[in-house]
What does this fold into?
Amino acid sequence: MKSWIRSSYKFSVCLSLVTLLATLTACDGGGQNAGSTNGETLRGDITIDGSSTVFPITEAMAEEFQIENPGTRVTVGISGTGGGFKKFCAGETDIQDASRPIKDSEMEACQQAGIEFIELPVAYDALSVVVNSQNDWVDCLTTEELQKIWEPAAQGKINNWSQVRADFPDQPLTLYGPGTDSGTFDYFTDAINGEEGASRGDYTASEDDNVIVQGVANDTGALGYFGLAYYEENQDKLKVVGIDDGDPSNGDGCIPPSVATVENSTYQPLARPIFIYVNKEALSRPEVQSFVNYYMDPANKDLVSEVGYIPLNDSVYQAIQTRLANQTTGTMFEGGSTVGVNLKEVLK
Amino acid sequence: MTINNSSRPQTSKQKSNFDVGLSRRFALDRIFQIACWTAVIIGLVALVVLLVDVVIDGLPRLDWTLLSEFPSRRASRAGLKSALVGTIWLMVLTAILTFPLGVGAGIFLEEFVKDTWYAKVIEVNISNLAAVPSIIYGLLGLSVFVRLMEPITGGRSVLAGAMTLSLLVLPIVIVATRESLRAVPDSLRQAGFALGATRWQVISSQVFPLAFPGILTGTILALSRAIGETAPLITIGALTFIAFLPPLSLEGLRTPFTALPIQIFNWVSRPQQEFHTAAAAGIIVLMVVLLLMNATAIWLRNKFQQD
It folds into this structure.
C-alpha cells in the first residue's frame, strides 16, 4: 500500500513534468499572438482547405499575408479538392483550394446549405509529359498519339514505342501517372481521352509525383505526366515532351510547356487553370476580404511563380478583380470541364 | 561396480530405445540459434539502413531554424514549430484521455466483470478494434468529435484530434492492461480475500501496483503508435499550414493544429529537393521525440519495479 502511494506520487511528479514541458513550449506562442495590439490591424481566423496542388500558392500567400497582418490566423489544409468541397459546402471553411472547377453534385450540396461562392482562377499549372533522359527518339507527341497511349482501349495492347509511331524503336513502353483521386488525372484524361476518368489502368499510379519522377528517371522506356514544377526541379533527370494538338490557330507544331507558352496559351490542351472558391458570406468579414484581395493582387504574382506555377497575365487579373468587386457568384464552367478554355473569354 | 556390471544388458537395451545423439542435438541447437540470429540481423540491418539514410539526408538541415520557425514556402526558412508543439499537445492530451479510460476498462474487464456472454462479446470486439485501419477512426472522429460535438471540441481542434487518437489506441491500452493484470498470480488475490480485504482493496493495494509497470509500458507503446499517425488526423481536418500555436488555456484545446507526420508528408511530396531534405530532418525530430517517449517508459518501468 505504502509503496503504491509513493509510486503514485512519483508518477504524478513525472506527469506534471511532462505537462510543464508542454507549457514551456506552448508559452512563447501566446506571445506571438499578442503581438498585434494597434487598433487598425485585422483580427480573426481564415480557414482554407482543399487541393494539395493549390496548397503551395495558398501557403505562400498566407505566409506573407500573416507577416503583414499579425492579428489574423490563416490555416490551410490539404483534404484534396473533393474532400475540401465537402467541408466548404458544409460552411466549415471560408476558402476552398480547387485544382478543377466545382462539380454539379458539389454545387447542389452548396445550394442546399445556402452557401454562395465566388470562383476565382489563381494560376495555371502546365501538365508536362516527360520521358527518360536517355530517350533520344521522342521530342514531340501529338494529342492523338497520347490518346493512343493512354485511352482505355490501349490497356494491355500498346506496350511498345514502335506501336505509337512507326519510326520509333522497338523499346518496351512503361507508363507512370497520378492515381485516380488526383485532379491532375481528371484533367489529363479529360483533355487527352475526351472523358474525365477514362484511362487505361495498367500503369504505375502514385499520388506522390516524386514517385513518378523516380520511376521515369530510372526506366529508359518510361513515359509519365505531372505538374510542371516537378519537371523543373528534375530537369537533369528527365526530358520533357512537346505537345502538338494539331490546331495551328493556337500555335503550330510542337509546343513544350513553359511559362511563356502557357501565358500566350499556345501550350494546349494541357495547361489548366487552378482556382480558389470564396464563401460569399465569409467575404463580408474584413480579414477574409483583405486576404482575397491580397491573393488576387497582381503585385503578388511573384509568389505564384516562386512556388512553381504560372501566373495569370494582367488582363486576366483585371477581369478577376472586376468579378471579385461585383461579387459574381456561381461557376464559369457549367459541366465542369476547363479543357481548352480561355480565361479571358469566360471571365467577361 | 558389480551391480552396475550386472545391470549393463538392461542399460544398453535402454540406450537403443533412447538415442542420446548429443552432437546431433547440439547441431540442432546451433541451427536454431543461427536462424534466430538471422532474424535479428535482417530486422536490424533494415532499421540501420533506414536510419543511416535518413540521418545522412537530414542531418545538414537539422538546426535551430527547423524547430523555431513556422512552415514556409521557402525550404530554407521552413520549420516545424507548429507541428512539434501540435504533436506534444496531442500526445499529452491523448495520454490524459487514454490512461484512465483504457486502464479503467481493462481493470473492469479483468477483475470485476463476470464471465457472461456480453463480457465475451465485449472482449472479442475490443480485440477486433485493435486491428481496424486508422483511417476508419478518422472518419468516426470527423462525424462524432468534429461535427456532432462541435460545441465542446470547437470543430477541427487539437481536442478532437486527441480524442480520435485516443479511440485509436484505447484497444491497445485495454489489451495491455488486461495482460499485465493477468500476469499477477491469482494466489495474491485469494490471499487478500482470505484476509478479509474487499475487491477494491485487493486491486488497489496488491494487484494494480504489481501490474503497473506493464500497464505503463503498454500505454507508452500505444502512444508511440499514435504519434506517427497521419491518416486519421488528415481525415478529421488537421491542417498543414498553420503559423500560430495554441494558447495555453482551455481555449487552446479548441484551436486548429498540425502535427509532425502531416508536415513531413507535405514536405516529402513537394517538388523541391530542399523540402525533401527538410522532411528527412523532420523525420529525425519525430524519431527523437519517439525515442524520448520510449526512454521515459523504460525509465518509469524500472523505477516502479524497484519499488
User: Anything to note?
Assistant: The longest strand of chain B covers residues 241-242. Chain B has a mean pLDDT of 88. Chain B has two domains: 26-61, 62-306.
